[in-house]
Amino acid sequence: MTFALNRAKKSVLAELRAKGHRPGEFSAREITELAEAYFAANMERLITEAAEVIATWPGFARWR
Prior knowledge:
The protein is an all-alpha fold. It has one domain. The protein is built from three helices and no strands.
């Protein structure tokens, strides 16, 4: 879940930059709220991607 939420936050920040905004123009709370909304809208895809990364990344091998 942490990985999926982090991906959502990175996507939100990329969208803000694409629209010409700087992340510093927003409070951490605003960015978190935007990321949570993005996560809710794209939950299935984000969780699937996170599970795939965890299943294939060598750094997680000892927990598999």
